[in-house]
Design a protein that fits this description.
This protein is an alpha/beta fold. Helix content is 31%, strand content 23%. Helix 3 crosses helix 4. The longest helix has 26 residues. The radius of gyration is 17 Å and the shape is globular.
């Protein structure tokens, strides 16, 4: 059987401050290919090139990756401040409607870091611009120095609610993960169910309630060293299983 295809929603960058590209980290493709068992396909994050109604017929599911730009606060009814950092309005306009459409269809979607935040905003939630400035919160940002292994090293635990999707998926109420984000959930979206939190109370794992299919997002970066990390393996294998189930039913829909 042909492997399912995963659209990886990429980011916009300038090479040498002049040449525009759409790109995604190699580790995202590696996690999708080698752990989820699917074919990665980079999706340009620009509505001028990508229509959600079209791309959902090309891909069996989608990975919404991390990225330096943040979701623009206009998307959740707030004004931009210096603390909100950089933005990519075209990614906002691509990712948010695509998440809603996939959840409506039951098409598998997985959100990571910025993708986690996109899930929340897509369903009406809001974000804190800078978690580390909140009383009692730790600094969740990536360490400024060191190797990739040092930057993506495990930094804190996640506690999951008893009987939830994540506790069942990982066969544990607690896992240890990396941490490389500045923003986080302030008010959960209408259908956003928080299933996992960091020791300081920061939401780290969510599901979309009443979703017809796989719709999970995590605030950490499971794509790093995914083939060697038990937590990442469990998450991406579950995503791959959902993709294959969708492909089995979706192929029937497309041929009818």
């Amino acid at each position: 059987m042909q492997r399912p295809v995963v659209g990886i929603v990429g980011n916009h960058y300038l090479i040498d401050d002049s040449y525009p590209v759409h790109a995604t980290g190699t580790m995202n493709s590696e996690a999708i290919s080698k752990v989820a068992g699917a074919t990665p396909l980079m999706v340009p994050s620009d509505p001028e090139f990508v229509c959600p109604d079209d791309i959902v017929e090309v891909c069996d599911g989608f990975l919404f990756t991390g990225g330096r730009p943040n979701v623009h606060p206009e998307e959740y009814g707030e004004e931009a401040t210096e603390a909100h950092g950089q933005f990519d309005r075209n990614r906002d306009r691509t990712a948010l409607p695509l998440i809603r459409l996939c959840v409506e269809r039951g098409q598998p979607v997985l959100g990571v870091c910025r993708g986690f935040q996109e899930f929340n905003v897509a369903f009406g939630g809001t974000l804190h611009p800078e978690i580390r400035e909140l009383p009692g919160r730790m600094n969740h940002r990536m360490p400024p120095d060191g190797s990739l292994d040092e930057k993506f090293a495990h930094r804190h635990s996640i506690e999951f609610i008893d009987g939830g999707v994540f506790a069942e998926l990982f066969e544990s109420r607690s896992v240890v993960v990396n941490s490389l984000h500045g923003q986080g959930i302030k008010v959960p979206g209408n259908r956003v169910s928080i299933e996992g939190t960091a020791p300081d109370g920061t939401p780290e794992a969510i599901t979309i309630s009443a979703a017809k299919g796989f719709a999970l997002a995590v605030q950490w970066h499971p794509e790093y060293n995914a083939g060697a990390d038990p937590v990442s393996i469990a998450l991406f294998r579950a995503f791959g299983d959902a993709l294959r189930r969708w492909r089995g039913s979706g192929m029937v829909m497309r041929s009818s």
